[in-house]
Amino acid sequence: MCVAARECGTSDYLLVVKHLETLSPEELAELAAQRQATKEERREQKQAQAANKAAALASPYSVVIDCAFGELMVRFCSCTRPLPSAPAMTSLTAQGTGENKSLMQQFAICYASNARAAVPARLCFTGLGGDLAERYDRYSGTDKWPVVRSGGSYLDVFAERRQSLVYLTADSPHELAELRADDVYIIGGIVDRNKHKGVTLKKAEQEGIRHARLPLQANMRLTGSAVLTVNQVLDILLAWLELRDWRAACERAVPPRKRAAEGEAERLGRKARRSGKSAAAAAAGREADVPAPQEDDDDGEEEEEAAEQDAE
Ligand SMILES: C[S@@+](CC[C@H](N)C(=O)[O-])C[C@H]1O[C@@H](n2cnc3c(N)ncnc32)[C@H](O)[C@@H]1O
Fold first, then answer.
1. Together in a domain, 39 and 132
2. Which of 206, 233, 234, 258 to mutate to test the pocket of ligand 1 (most atoms within 8 A of CB)?
3. In which domain, by residue range, is 132 found?
4. Do residues 227 and 269 share a domain?
5. pLDDT tens digits, residue range 10-31?
6. How far apart are CA 152 and CA 195, in angstroms?
7. How far is the CA of 219 from the centre of ligand 1 (A)?
8. How many domains does the chain have?
9. Is residue 128 lining ligand 1, measured as CB closer than 6 Å?
């Protein structure tokens, strides 16, 4: 049986042959050329994907996604309160499972963004264990992702480069100035609706590693919280690697729903001036109207829900 017959089934094949018989030699030649062009396009796409995979693993820029927050996403083991009743326990477990599902979806978005990026990063998933690791293994295609995967901590994976580690956290008092090839940037792999405020800052401080927040407020006016989802943070890093400019990177990667509209920005600026704040401070969003990350009250919850919808 010829290839075409195998591809479309014998009866469909006969229909195609009948149709072909009605075509002029010019139309047949055009069809053959189109088929050839499609084949070449597919081959080029495959080559580009393979090249991007290799580029990602060889990238001088490392981004870690720290997956070691499993117990926070089902938080009832380590607390001092008595264990919840059986139904409450079931509901907590379901909640944790939902958060892991959402996190896995964010990982898939991260992988896809990195695969498409003009300057990809070397992605490392560390602390991957428990339910999340099982989900990761079950997720279609993860075995072929060009990433580093470890059940251990980034402290072990980068044991020789401890000084290079920078934990990214919205709660850090330090603002990230640039991305450096010799530093390793860590994103907290956690979906918590910011219930665990400051957990990554605390972790970085306890481990004695550097920390920094993204320069969001200095580059755009946000509608609320500066706490972003894992994939949004990676998108900003990837955009910066390409554009080398935070404002342009934020413009590209911060979702429009997080940004205050023009009129809103002016209104907030006027309000800040009336309350005695300087316009510059208002524009930088560092004062009253744009809450500091640790004081916000939408807590990234809306973002995480939106990210779940984006992923579905
Ligand atoms: C949904 S947030 C988790 C919030 C969590 N309560 C915490 O304390 O980090 C996911 C991760 O994205 C990173 N992240 C989110 N917003 C950030 C920002 N504005 N600057 C730096 N990193 C940020 C942090 O690494 C954070 O752990």
1. no
2. 233
3. 57-311
4. yes
5. 778 888 888 888 989 999 999 9
6. 25
7. 17
8. 2
9. no
